[in-house]
Amino acid sequence: METTLNVKGMTCGHCKMSVEGALKNLEGVNSAEVDLGSGKVKVAYEEGKVTVEDMREAVEDQGYDVA
Ligand code: 9UX
User: Fold this and answer.
1) How much is the pLDDT for 42?
2) Beta carbons of 61 and 9 less than 8 angstroms apart
3) Domain ranges of the chain
4) For burial by CB atoms within 10 Å, which of 14, 31, 43, 44 has the most?
5) Assembly ipTM
6) What's 38's DSSP letter?
């Protein structure tokens, strides 16, 4: 499965690394890629192992808002 999260407040390369790292640490997430220009995060994951809500929490724990 693939989903796109809209994340607010990511402006530099460290933001990108923090958010991608937090998502990739979740069991069931195969890849995460932040586009800083648009704030979109493309996530590939295995259904049944992780939920979009889990992803939202992981990103919010890093201090960013998920739309
Ligand atoms: Mo860069 Mo992101 O200095 O919150 S880490 S803007």
Assistant:
1) 98
2) no
3) 2-66
4) 43
5) 0.87
6) T
Give yes or no for residue 67 CB within 6 A of ligand 1.
no
Q: Return the ligand 1 atom nearest residue 9 CA.
A: 4
Residue 38 phi/psi, 5° resolution? -100, -15
pLDDT less than 50: residues of the chain = none
| Domain 2-66, architecture per CATH | 2-Layer Sandwich (3.30)
Cα 47 to middle of ligand 1, angstroms: 31
CB 23 within 8 A of CB 56: no
Q: Dig out the tokens for 45 from the structure.
A: 């994951």
For residue 6, what pLDDT is reported?
98
Supply the pTM of this predicted model. 0.95
